[in-house]
Design brief:
Elements (H helix, E strand, L loop, with lengths): L1 H19 L2 E14 L11 E5 L1 E13 L4 E23 L4 E26 L3 E27 L2 E14 L11 E4 L2 E12 L3 E10 L20 E10 L1 E3 L2
Parallel strand pairs: 7-8
Antiparallel strand pairs: 1-3, 1-11, 1-12, 2-4, 3-4, 4-5, 5-6, 6-7, 6-9, 9-10, 10-11
């Protein structure tokens, strides 16, 4: 009987506790500087491979639930543009000549991102200096890519080409190359660290996202080579304007 009364009391008290807790929400707009640490298994010591970052946008909504005077749980739903610029150079030396083949890729990955972060503020109610730590999940909605290639014999240009197409979620590359579709694994996940400043309504944050999941789709059996692996990396500078009440 006592346990039953205690349970009923907790259920009756829960709405009052949530009413006293602060809940805020509002739009968020930001700038991404994103890359991916592409690794190609067929790169040898005589070859070169480099990765660089690309700019992008991030926009959506942020929600914040105050846990205590200086702590809050932060989440949201965001459209986030990520991607990478990749350059590879393959070099082979023969007895009478050298052969060099270069290729470049520009990837744009469009994600729907769900972050979950613990926020500490130096002043109560999410104001002052902000420190952030948490995780995120990203769901690939699509994107695009462009590629170029060039071949040289002993430094003399022999020819080149290029390609472009869409990016789609998938665990295996398409063998139908006429479709011009590049496949990347649909689920991204990783950790986040950040800092920022907060006012009564406005928050500005700089967050670094470190992807932990290999997003490289596998080549079909019999392809004869291993597929590249890569993980998302992203710096995000964003501002949010929050409505609602603080605890």
């Amino acid at each position: 009987m006592n346990k039953f009364l205690l349970t009923v009391g907790l259920l009756l008290a829960a709405p009052a506790a949530f009413a006293q807790a602060g809940f805020r929400f509002g739009p968020q707009l930001g700038f991404n500087y994103a890359g991916s640490n592409y690794a190609f298994p067929d790169i040898t010591s005589s070859d070169k491979s480099s990765n660089s970052y690309r700019p992008g946008l991030e926009a959506g909504a942020q929600v914040q639930f105050d846990l205590a005077a200086h702590y809050a749980l932060q989440s949201g739903l965001l459209f986030s543009q990520k991607g990478a610029h990749v350059e590879n150079s393959y070099f082979t030396a023969y007895s009478s000549y050298t052969y060099t083949y270069t290729e470049t890729y520009d990837f744009r990955f469009n994600y729907l991102v769900l972050p979950l972060r613990l926020q500490y503020s130096s002043a109560p109610n999410g104001q002052g200096l902000l420190l952030l730590a948490g995780t995120y999940a990203g769901f690939l909605g699509g994107g695009s890519y462009k590629s170029t290639s060039q071949a040289y014999t002993s430094g003399t240009f022999q020819g080149g080409g290029g390609d472009s197409g869409n990016v789609a979620p998938g665990d295996t590359y398409n063998t139908n190359y006429s479709s011009h579709t590049y496949y990347s694994r649909g689920l991204d996940a990783g950790g986040q660290l950040g800092m920022g400043v907060g006012g009564q309504h406005l928050q500005v944050q700089l967050v670094y996202s470190y992807g932990l999941r290999n997003l490289g789709a596998e080549y079909p059996a019999g392809k004869g080579r291993a597929a590249p692996s890569y993980h998302n990396r992203c710096f995000t500078l964003a501002a949010a304007y929050l409505f609602g009440s603080s605890k």
